[in-house]
Amino acid sequence: MLIFIKLVLAHLIGDFVLQPTRWVLHKQANKIKSKFLYVHVLLHFSLYMLLLWDLSLWKIAVTVTIAHFFIDTLKLYSNELFKNKSVPFFIDQVLHILVIYGCVFYTNLYAHTLLLFENLDWYLVTAIVFVTYPAAIIMGMILEGMSNQIETDHKSLPNAGKYIGIIERLFVLIFIVLGRWEVIGLLIAAKSVFRFNDLKERNNRKLTEYILIGTLISFGLAILAGLLYIS
């Protein structure tokens, strides 16, 4: 597992810390002809060997480096197929991690993967999944009658409220699992402060009540999921 962690660390350093924006832009413009594509790949190989600090593991470093080259090249040529540029980015990162995982545990890949799944805390996984989109849909159903009475704010970011709710519920669940209930109070207070000026300027009682009800339901669902997990 230590080898896997070292290779992931090397990947993070090479892809994010030591890759200037001008390299990224040059690769996007010139693709496989970009000199920075090859510099980037060689940098990764150097980082792999440096962090592993074991010449006997050179085959793993070479294999991961070659795979990195092909994955990055595929991303450069497939970027145009996606309207949302975050999609190829995340696919690219997942493929890199999977390659590292496969190279490190290739001798017992199936057994190790099976062991990982067997050791997963499925109760926690279920709680995490619940407080994301399922909870958002439940809230939408509960608040549907009220939302029709609220004027839409066209200045708001699309789906911003939904994502804020998902993030806050994840935080609440984490704090409950860690037994830090007092931090949940701080989270509610912080959200109230951010919302106060906005609601004060609008002077809209219906909107204030709607947001208050939504916040309480959101926190309530997260607390319920947390309590069910720790019980």
From TrEMBL:
The keyword Disulfide bond does not apply. This is DUF3307 domain-containing protein. Keywords: Membrane, Transmembrane, Transmembrane helix. It comes from the Bacteria. InterPro entries: Phage_phiKZ_Orf197. The keyword Transmembrane applies. It comes from Maribacter ulvicola. The chain crosses the membrane at residues 36-53, 89-110, 122-143, 170-190, 210-230.
